[in-house]
Amino acid sequence: MKPTRMLGLVVILLGATGCASSYWKDRGADASDFLDIGITYSREPQVAVYAGFQSLLSVGYASVDGGMLGLGQGQFGDIAMRNRAAGLVVAGAEQYAFGAHYDPADPAYPEWRGAGFCLLSHKTPATTMEFLQCPKFVHLGWIGLNVNCKIGELLDFVLGWTTLDIGGDDGAKRAGKYNHLPPPAKR
Questions:
Q1: What pTM value is reported for the model?
Q2: Number of domains observed in the structure of the chain
Q3: What is the pLDDT of residues 19-36, one digit of tens each?
Q4: Residue 22: its H or E element
């Protein structure tokens, strides 16, 4: 049998068993996780000039409640978001969330987490996957840019091709992945 026919037969068999569809869904979901990128906007003038590196270093200030047009925490489109952070190189704190994990009525949600020397000083320390991020925010007035490269999620994506799931987010485990918090309570 020719190699192309053999490959075609394997693809048909995998598709018929349902294995391939969940595998490809998980790869697509992992691909949407390792980068947050978009144009931010707010109804009122707000400011953010902030850069973080692997939760070890943080520099700048960010205070933006609004929305983002782009890709954020596995969601694509017009996403409600909060970016708040403050850092003095070796010490800082971050609070950011998108979509269902964002409650504009509750400024304390989600909980703040530390960066640098403050890493373990907050009630909820960063998880390993949250720790391996490099958030960058610039927002001046009503518009800005958000870019966050998540190294841990990139590694999860690459290793996922071998079916290794270091992010613990494949299949049914994906629900509630971000911030490891339930959605905010409705008032």
A1: 0.74
A2: 1
A3: 567 888 888 888 888 899
A4: helix 19-33
